[in-house]
Amino acid sequence: MRNAMRISHLTRADVVAAARGWIGTPFHHLERRKGIGVDCAGLIVGVCRELGLVPAEFDVPAYTPTPDGYTMRASCAQYMVPIARAAMQPGDAILLVTDLHPQHLGILADYAHGGLSIIHAANSAHPPRVIETRLMFSRALRFVAAYSLLEIN
């Protein structure tokens, strides 16, 4: 993407550590407060704010809890730099389909037993909260796109 800026002093481990700091935060649509409430896009925004990748006042436009197939993907394309699926690593963001449309975001991490995990605000968790789980694609969880968080538009 044009005008991408590389943040050289941060590492992928910094992104993963910041994201893991949100684990346990309750799920709340359109919230952005660590320990209080966050949704999947809010986790990305919160981690980027915390690391200084975006200004403290940065946010994405409001969106409905029911995906329309375009809004989330358009916001990702506007604010993050796309990368190939084969190139994704811990510290990158991922956009997924869990129903019919691209609607769910998470931050990739290193899975303890090899491969990748995903840190995400899961409204399907019991109770709904930020969790880390092994990343496994299936009919219920389909890859859409991956983005670098260390390069911001």
Instruction: Provide the CATH superfamily.
Output: endopeptidase domain like (from Nostoc punctiforme)
CATH topology assignment: endopeptidase fold (from Nostoc punctiforme)
What is the helix fraction of residues, given as a range? 10-25%
Q: How confident overall, as mean pLDDT?
A: 89
For the record, the CATH class is Alpha Beta
Main pleated sheet:
7 strands, antiparallel
The figure for the number of domains is: 1
| Outline | globular
Q: State the helix count.
A: 3
The topology string of helices and strands comes to EHEEHHEEEEEE
Task: Annotate the secondary structure layout.
Layout: E1 5-6, H1 12-20, E2 32-33, E3 37-38, H2 40-50, H3 71-79, E4 80-83, E5 93-97, E6 102-110, E7 116-122, E8 129-134, E9 142-152
Entry summary:
19% of the residues lie in helices and 31% in strands. With 153 residues, it is α+β, with helices and mostly antiparallel strands. The strands form 2 sheets. Strands 1, 4, 5, 6, 7, 8 and 9 form a 7-stranded antiparallel beta sheet that branches. Strands 2-3 form a two-stranded antiparallel ribbon.
